[in-house]
Amino acid sequence: MLGVVVKQDINITNSDPTTHNIHFTPKNNPDWNQSQPNGAPALIHKLNVAEVLVPVKCNQHPWMRAYVGVLKHPFFAVSAEDGSFTIKNVPPGKYTVVAWHENPPGNGIEKPMEVTVPAKGAATADFTFGGTAELLGQPSSLRMLPAIEFPMIGKH
After folding, report:
1. What is the distance between the alpha carbons of residues 113 and 2, in angstroms, rounded to a whole number?
2. What pLDDT shows up at residue 134?
3. Helix, strand, coil percentages for the chain (3-state, nearest 5)
4. Among 11, 52, 55, which residue's Cα sits nearest to residue 31?
5. Fewer CB atoms inside 10 A, N or C side of the chain?
6. Nearest C-alpha neighbor of 144 from the set 127, 156, 119, 130
């Protein structure tokens, strides 16, 4: 799980003793597919259009996958192993915070929550996914991507 801002460089390295094939399969951005042998220089990729979430897979190792949340703003976080997260520097206001968790593998669950950030202080958003990672036999360190949704302003 990775969160980036539109047009932000994504630095891809391979520290394994084998070749990998990094394959981004977005809906709104161009497909990108690149092999990377061990010891090769880092690959740099960027996604130019907001999209949640872009699947990334290794064509040589089908069990290897990741997701990249591409947002127009920096108000997102990837949860820590214990599930905690912090979204910093959010201006005061009322927001919808959406958490996404892969479940089952290859699909995802979104959970929205209304949150009001006061002028001074902090707000809390607690998400529960019901232990699905453990029930599906997946590692308990699966991450979620909480992000703020901004209402569309102007013409749609």
Report:
1. 21
2. 41
3. 5, 40, 55
4. 55
5. C
6. 127
> Is the CB of residue 20 less than 8 Å from the CB of residue 42?
no
| Of residues 43, 93, 52, the one with CA closest to residue 71 | 52
Residue 30: CB partners within 8 Å, gap ≥ 6? Answer: none
User: And the tokens for 114?
Assistant: 């209304």
Would you write out the chain's pLDDT as a tens digit for each of its 156 residues? 899 999 999 999 999 999 999 999 999 999 999 999 999 999 999 999 999 889 999 999 988 999 999 999 999 998 888 888 899 999 999 999 888 887 766 677 888 899 999 998 888 888 887 654 444 444 434 455 666 655 444 443
Provide the residue type at 26 as one letter: P
Please list the residues that pair with 67 across neighbouring strands: 55
CB within 8 Å of 2: residues ≥ 6 apart: 10, 66, 67, 68, 69, 78
Contact 29, 48 (CB under 8 A): yes
d(CA 37, CA 58) in angstroms, rounded, equals 12
Rounded to two decimals, what is the model's pTM?
A: 0.80
Residue 134 dihedral angles phi and psi, to the nearest 5°? -70, -40
